[in-house]
Structures
1.
Amino acid sequence: MEFFNDVGSDAHRPSLFELIAQEQLRDLLQPALKYVLAVFAQRHPRYLLRIVNRHEEFYAAIMFFVERHYLKAEGASFAENFYGLKRRRKPFIETERAKAAVGSTPAEESLRSKDIWRSLIFLVGVPYIRAKAQDHYEQLGGGVDSDILNDTSASGRLLTDGGQVGYRSRLREMPLTPESQTMPHLRKIFKTLYPWANTSFELWLAAWNIAYLLDKTSFYRPWLSWIGVDLRRLGAADFSDSVAKQLKSGAQDVPKGVLATTRRWLISSPKLLLASLKVLLPTCIFFIKFLEWWYSPSSPARTLTGPPSGPSIPPPRMLQPHPQGLPVDGVKYGECPICKSAIVNATALSSGYVFCYRCAHSHVEKYGNCPVTLLPAQIWQLRKVLI
């Protein structure tokens, strides 16, 4: 791919490898931050649990200030600046002499205020909307058969064993509201259309990548052409200007006195913190990925820190059914002990027995125990079994 990008006279045109690499770095930031918050939330749930539950909003708010700072100070997003790229307003007519120039970005090609705000919409707003849509799709049971989660499909199944009330009669007793009638249809439409829309969006982006690779366009993303901004490599003049700005800021008169020093430190600390993210965030991502590899089953840490080889620990013994509980046929595999049909959306209780999700949920909600062993059980103890 480097061949397609470097044979021309435009040495400042970034390769597709660089553009994809900076996007992958940006995509790694959110799961890394979520992992760190989830770890600390286990120790301080009172303060961090709400942030973890609203992680998309929290991450979007943080990235808004980070990306805004880098767009104003460096003329590029955080990931683009990390890979030595910059944004510029693409001129309507670009000569070969301008392409071959190695100077810094001219004033007329620098990002204006409206260019920064438009860039923020696609750097922060669009990823936030996509993350919320993906999260909502997974909450609706993305990839699971709609018959499993559809209320109307399982409502016709009656549970007569043990005197339990059937789903159909329970649904008839519930009052119907316009919202309760409309929302299931909207969820079903969203669950059907979202995979197609997401796939079409990815194919659309892939088409722009191919066009950029073949030098058919100077934008690797369609919204960059809408904004009128393209990406360029940083040149020697850009690095010289950056060093000059740092020397100029460091050569300022140092204030005397405690109050003046404190005031200067409070004003400059947010900028220093945002500027240090260029080193801190990639280091944190590398450290988190290293910990994931170190504690993975294939890591050498298992052989170095694990106990010496010995007899394997046997699994716990299966609890026997209670005489007054539902009988379990040990020969039939995949049959729900409650409805006596094939298990749909397999769910296990703390006793170890597996049922249909709706059967288990209905029984635990009404009786508060396992229907086979009669051991106490609660709704939050239901565990989905991935087969």
Note: Confidence is low (pLDDT under 50) at residues 1-7, 145-168.
2.
Amino acid sequence: MRPIGRPLPQPLRLPSFTSAFIKCYFYVPTIATISFNVGTPFRIIRQYQSQRFTSASTPQPVPKLRRIASTSTVTVPALKRLNVELDGQFVSFDQLFLRDACSCPHCIHPSTQQKLFHTTDIPYDVRADFTETLSDGSLRVRWKNDIPIPGGEVHESIYTPDFLRRYSTLRNRVRARYNDQRQILWDKRKMESDVLYVSYNDYMNSDEALFRAVRQLSLYGLMFIRGVPEGQHDAIEGMAERIGNLKNTFYGKTWDLKNVKDSKNIAYTPLNLGHHMDLLYFESPPGLQFLHCIQNTTKGGTSIFVDSFRAATVLRLNSPQLFRSLTKFPVTYHYQNDGYHYHFTRPTIVLDEHSYLEMQRISQVNWGPPFQAPFEVDIGSNGNGQFRQYIVAAKEFAKNVDDPDAQFELRLEEGVCAVFFNRRILHSRRAFDPSTGDRWLKGAYVDIDAFYSKYRTLSEQLRSEKEREDDAYSYIR
């Protein structure tokens, strides 16, 4: 690496302001020379010290390409950073990141709020030519070696203190999108204490009531709407669309759960239906499920709900090795019937890969024994024990799920709609006697993206500062 310039000996001190104090260090770019053999796999390792790496592997010919020298040298400008003193602490921003994040009218369309350029359009050697702090605390940057601006204007970007704080740490970035909300892990006793029922009229007509509902879903993954008018058999569409568009599947936008002779799905029988999540054989299973009870005069058929995140966390605390097995071993789900063939393979527990916590949060659980296919990967034929270890782990997880003290059981009464996270809350139904009456539930799905969109917009409008502070922690009860 051959430096072509040196850092300024002293930082450029900018005027202080009320909300933050910004101080910038400028670095003149350096050049890193990296050598590698063409035609062979290679990894470019970031260089922070002056050093040259040359692959020792034998050069291989590149099929159907012009033959070139066995070793090619590429000069790559070193990463250029702008160091900012923000609220008394130094934060380093890659200047390419700042340039890419520009929100001026040349870069972001004022109406669509979408980018008008590609990240790959930005010259690799773009850099800040001048910076200053504005009276409101924002940072103004004038760019050099930038994408040409129509009319030959000099391109300038403005970054507010809130923007700089948001992108200064992973924690701030995650929290800014409400992606780390507190989860209350519940058992039977806790849910009996904290269960939320929202009236149909309030839910449909009040944003405050809707916010209570979505916040309860964010915390517990389960809530109920009651007082749905009798005779409104399509009311579920309106209830679901208060949060987002209906997810259309091969069952339709909505579906009816009734006892059907020669049914193609166990849910349409009077049999006991074990703990499960819906449509795990989809690449993108629904995030939110609505179940509206229209008729229920049969004997039996109570509904059971279980917090799979709690069951998984108990396993994590008692046996980290078995927990890891559920995060790694692939389980196959399928539906092959009635002219349809769906199939997907996924681990039982999915962790949040963007979590800033040392113990990664649980993002999803996939558990649907009635819809499980034969295992297709690492079934033990090669002599390893991963399959058997998975079975041991799954048995322990099932014990936590089947624990009566973990199950919230109730009879869904007519006019009540259960709403729950399909990737967190396991639901099941006890067998019922169809000769004793009628049982008719109507269901619908909404994608999780629609839920989080609604949650974010309502949070921005209605959350208090106290609620923001309270949501900083997760805990098990």
Note: The radius of gyration is 28 Å.
3.
Amino acid sequence: MKRDLQAVEKDIMEAEVARNGWEEKSWDLDTMIGHKFKKLEALSIKCNQALRSSMSKLEELISLQQQPVENAAKIEAKRNRVATLQSNCDEVEARVNYLKQETQNYTSRCASEAKKLVEDVEIETHSVDVVEREVADVLEGVGQTISQVNHLGCLANVTVGTTIPLEDGGLVFPGIIWAHRV
């Protein structure tokens, strides 16, 4: 029974260690995702600034359309650049949305696993409580048995008599009388 208790206590400790490990991993991942998210936000801001800058340059280019044909080629290059920047911004936004979804999914999985670990610990705790109650009942029974034995007072009374020496150096007490005291 002691082994069972030790095994249950070991299981509880391992479950707590595992839960702590998952919590640490969750915090580490959350911190890492937070850093990545901040980087993506900074990149998004830069993209928006670049887009605004490009839009203002595009407006300048529209006014240049009145100039010769070589200016038209420059305008087209700047339009392509704006389209590329817009595409990059769209990609960054899609990645941000994907990371948000992955973060939510991971957080949900971690919460589910943490809930399961808590339930497992509660089950193990309940099992330990049951075993502790059983041990207490057994100890109470043993205590009652000892009390009954003491109450009956089984004692050996030895009367002093002669001793008979044995060949091996021991002694025999032939006058031993067994009695029960009530």
Note: Residues 154-161, 175-182 have pLDDT under 50 and may be disordered.
4.
Amino acid sequence: MQSSSQSSSTQSHLPFPSPQVDGLLVLIPNRIDVEEESRLYDELEEDEDVNESPALQLSRGPPSTYSHDIWLGDHVGQSSVFSRDVRISGWTSVGDQLGGAFIVYDCAIRTKEGITIHAHKRFSDFAELYHTLKHTLPHHLLHFIPPLPPKSPFARYRPAFLDHRRRQLQYWLSVVLLHPEIGNCQAVRCWVLE
């Protein structure tokens, strides 16, 4: 008698119908055969590779290091932006602080061809590019240009402030140079190469 009361109390607490009661569910074994799943997955991948044309396989380019489904050559030629990566690797103070020193940032810009261009720019150069873009770009692109980081005349030579500003300028420059339309404009190209 006790076993029948236990089974009815177990059935009432289940969030789904019990197979003993309705026969609606099919019990799946408690284990998954990993080897069988792996074999089936490998067969599926082999079938997909066979179905592709050799021309398509060659045109893809090298595979991504992150996924076998993403190919590095997928978007080659679709964007006319010449840079692939932007880093501001550091900054240095030029001159002495009493006699008119200024800070120069080392902008390492990697092109689509893999060439790294080091452009040494002052904050005023970034401000000049910002204003040039605001005056020369079409109106529908202006909202893509983020504001420049603020100036701080009292903290401008402190290392913590300069490193924070370096990170902010790197973000700003990445947004500008890697944008598909803005990164290709003449003002950006001239700024990088001057």
Note: The longest helix spans residues 159-177.
